[in-house]
């Protein structure tokens, strides 16, 4: 038995610091709202008026959850915390759009060793900014202090979102057809996957994150912390554009962990093959820097990083011009990667069949990237 009383603060949890963090984040959260949100910050649960769903024929809810992973280690090393929240939103809401659903609202969770109000507020401001970009409401969240479990400067973030789509508008392999075109949407950089590889390469080379890299035109850390591009709004516009005979986008793929081929294979049906031609694009310099610095084999690089393609749309050929125009209006480069066929010889070292438990179609990578 101790001679001195032990308080919650003495145990390492500063409730007052948590309250200060909430005060600092209020204005940012206020900008990440939609008319359907009821109540304000600080409730036990976020409230969202779902009465609009009653006007839908058969509303289907879509949900997704994710984190940012080891990219957070670079945020800590650079002491820059207002961009990883954008990454979190992108990783979550753009998974929802893959089904054709509109993301509606999101919640976040931050675990940390010690609440530093300014740092927590910076993280949440990034989450709120991401929600603004996606048109999603940030309806609540939680910050948990874990002294003794995490170091004072450590934190981790996660989020979950919910969206809705009409049943007969759900996108996926069941819509993909022989002759469809594969359209690429450019990434903004590394996004939020493959950072364990990137960090290992950088550490092995003895580079610091504040190193100026000529090929990148900025420091390595600045490049690594470039936020994930959020595609939600432009994709919702794209999938609403029908062809003359009423055809729409058939499938979407968010290029995250596993790389381009594996994620595209997830949205193809068995019996169809997408041929992706590397000669149609030059990956941004950060990918060649990682490859050359770590002598990373190409197949390993392509299985880990997005290589400059953040999203893929599979659509009828008649819709390519309209879809490319939507991307152009949003300031996102887009180009034709290849096409879907019923090829029966889809095998070999550059071919992926199915991925992440999905026994779907195949993706064959061909050609070589043009020199940068």
From TrEMBL:
<comment type="pathway">
    <text>Purine metabolism; IMP biosynthesis via de novo pathway; 5-amino-1-(5-phospho-D-ribosyl)imidazole from N(2)-formyl-N(1)-(5-phospho-D-ribosyl)glycinamide: step 2/2.</text>
</comment>
<feature type="region of interest" description="Disordered">
    <location>
        <begin position="347"/>
        <end position="372"/>
    </location>
</feature>
<dbReference type="GO" id="GO:0046084">
    <property type="term" value="P:adenine biosynthetic process"/>
</dbReference>
<protein>
    <recommendedName>
        <fullName>Phosphoribosylformylglycinamidine cyclo-ligase</fullName>
        <ecNumber>6.3.3.1</ecNumber>
    </recommendedName>
</protein>
<dbReference type="InterPro" id="IPR004733">
    <property type="entry name" value="PurM_cligase"/>
</dbReference>
<keyword id="KW-0547">Nucleotide-binding</keyword>
<feature type="domain" description="PurM-like N-terminal">
    <location>
        <begin position="57"/>
        <end position="165"/>
    </location>
</feature>
<dbReference type="GO" id="GO:0004641">
    <property type="term" value="F:phosphoribosylformylglycinamidine cyclo-ligase activity"/>
</dbReference>
<dbReference type="Pfam" id="PF00586">
    <property type="entry name" value="AIRS"/>
</dbReference>
<keyword id="KW-0436">Ligase</keyword>
<dbReference type="InterPro" id="IPR036921">
    <property type="entry name" value="PurM-like_N_sf"/>
</dbReference>
<keyword id="KW-0963">Cytoplasm</keyword>
<dbReference type="InterPro" id="IPR010918">
    <property type="entry name" value="PurM-like_C_dom"/>
</dbReference>
<dbReference type="GO" id="GO:0006189">
    <property type="term" value="P:'de novo' IMP biosynthetic process"/>
</dbReference>
<keyword id="KW-0067">ATP-binding</keyword>
<dbReference type="GO" id="GO:0004637">
    <property type="term" value="F:phosphoribosylamine-glycine ligase activity"/>
</dbReference>
<dbReference type="InterPro" id="IPR016188">
    <property type="entry name" value="PurM-like_N"/>
</dbReference>
<comment type="similarity">
    <text>Belongs to the AIR synthase family.</text>
</comment>
<feature type="domain" description="PurM-like C-terminal">
    <location>
        <begin position="177"/>
        <end position="343"/>
    </location>
</feature>
<dbReference type="InterPro" id="IPR036676">
    <property type="entry name" value="PurM-like_C_sf"/>
</dbReference>
<keyword id="KW-0658">Purine biosynthesis</keyword>
<dbReference type="Pfam" id="PF02769">
    <property type="entry name" value="AIRS_C"/>
</dbReference>
<dbReference type="GO" id="GO:0005524">
    <property type="term" value="F:ATP binding"/>
</dbReference>
<dbReference type="GO" id="GO:0005829">
    <property type="term" value="C:cytosol"/>
</dbReference>
């Amino acid at each position: 038995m101790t001679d001195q009383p032990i308080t919650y603060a003495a145990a390492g949890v500063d409730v007052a610091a948590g309250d200060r963090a909430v005060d600092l984040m209020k204005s940012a959260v206020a900008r990440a709202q939609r008319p359907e949100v009821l109540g304000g910050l600080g409730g036990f649960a976020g409230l969202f008026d779902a009465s609009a769903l009653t006007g839908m024929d058969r509303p289907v809810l879509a949900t997704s959850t994710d984190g940012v992973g080891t990219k957070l280690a670079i945020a800590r090393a650079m002491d820059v915390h207002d961009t990883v929240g954008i990454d979190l939103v992108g990783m979550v809401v753009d998974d929802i759009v893959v089904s054709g659903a509109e993301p509606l609202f999101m919640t976040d969770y931050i675990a940390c060793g010690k609440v530093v109000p300014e740092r927590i507020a910076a993280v949440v401001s990034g989450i709120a900014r991401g929600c603004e970009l996606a048109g999603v409401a940030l309806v609540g969240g939680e910050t948990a202090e874990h002294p003794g479990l995490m170091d004072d400067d450590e934190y981790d973030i996660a989020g979950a979102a919910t969206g809705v789509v009409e049943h007969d508008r759900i996108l996926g392999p069941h819509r993909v057809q022989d002759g469809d075109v594969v359209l690429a949407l450019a990434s903004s950089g590394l996004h939020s996957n493959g950072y364990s590889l990137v960090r290992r390469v950088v550490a092995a080379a003895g580079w610091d994150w504040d190193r100026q890299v000529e090929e990148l035109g900025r420091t390595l850390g600045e490049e690594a912390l470039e936020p994930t591009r959020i595609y939600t709004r432009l994709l919702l516009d794209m999938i609403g554009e029908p062809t003359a005979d009423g055809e729409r986008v058939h499938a979407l793929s968010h290029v995250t962990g596993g790389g381009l081929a594996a994620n595209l294979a997830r949205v193809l049906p068995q019996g169809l093959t997408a041929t992706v031609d590397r000669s149609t694009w030059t990956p941004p310099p950060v990918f060649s820097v990682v490859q050359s610095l770590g002598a990373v084999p190409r197949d390993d690089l392509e299985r880990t990083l997005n290589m400059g393609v953040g999203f893929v749309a599979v659509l009828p050929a008649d819709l390519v011009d309209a879809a490319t125009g939507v991307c152009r209006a949003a300031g996102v480069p887009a180009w034709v990667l290849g096409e879907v066929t019923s090829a029966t010889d889809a095998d070999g070292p550059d071919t992926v069949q199915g991925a992440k438990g999905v026994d779907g179609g195949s993706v064959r990578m061909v050609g070589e990237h043009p020199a940068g």
